[in-house]
Structure formats: C-alpha cells, structure tokens
Known about the structure:
Elements: H1 6-41, H2 44-75, H3 79-98, H4 108-138
Amino acid sequence: MPLLPFEYHERVRVIVIYMYGLGAGGAWIAAIASPNTSYDKLDPARADTHIRALLRTASAQIAVVLLLAAGLTVLIAYYMSALFAVIAAIGFVSNRLVLSRRSTEGRVRDRRQARRVIAVGLTLVFMLAILIAMIFAVQRL
Length: 141
C-alpha cells in the first residue's frame, strides 16, 4: 500500500523515472563520453588522472541521487525498483572506494590504471542496475 495519497502517486513516479535517467546519464558520461574526450585532448597521464577524479566525484553524486530515488519508490510502494536502486547506489559507493586515494606500493601507475579500468567496468554494470530499476518503475513494480 502506498504511503502517499493517490493523487501524488503518478507525479512521484515520474520524478523517480527522471532521477533514474539522471543517474544513468551521469554514469554514461563519466564512463564513456568523458574518457574519450580526455584521451583526445590530454596526454595519457593527465587523462588518466582526470578520469579517475571524474569517476570518484560522479560516483558519490550518482549514489546520492539513487538513494533519494529509492526512498521515493518506497513511498509509492515500488519495492523491486527500490531494491535495484539501492543495489546500484551501493555499487557506486564501492566504485568510489576503488578509486580512493590510498598509498600503494610497487608499481603505482599500473595499479592506478587497473583501478580505473575496474571502476569503469563497475560503472557500466551498475548503470544496467539503474536501467532495471527504471524498467521496474515504469512497469509499476
């Protein structure tokens, strides 16, 4: 049973779908569009640093948007959509942790590049989770 009055139900649903689109679009820009531009315009070391910083910053903001959307979907009783939104938000938090600035030993550059590749892969995987949550919201689940 929805926690909101019925007249607000569809408005909140539209806002939630918009928030999912915002999260998926932000993930796409951070993982695909911006790295292509960075490697075209910057030297490889600066491009790698820029991409890692962008993914770290974007992951936190996308996670907040997804948690807000999950809270709204619980209010309108779309629990499957909320579940996938929380899974995606946890994924973006883990993405931020992968890219955290911690000291590393040995081959620092290789580890940074490996962490960037892992972060881009996680971003794409959890972008799919956002799209699944969006589909559930559209289907009213």
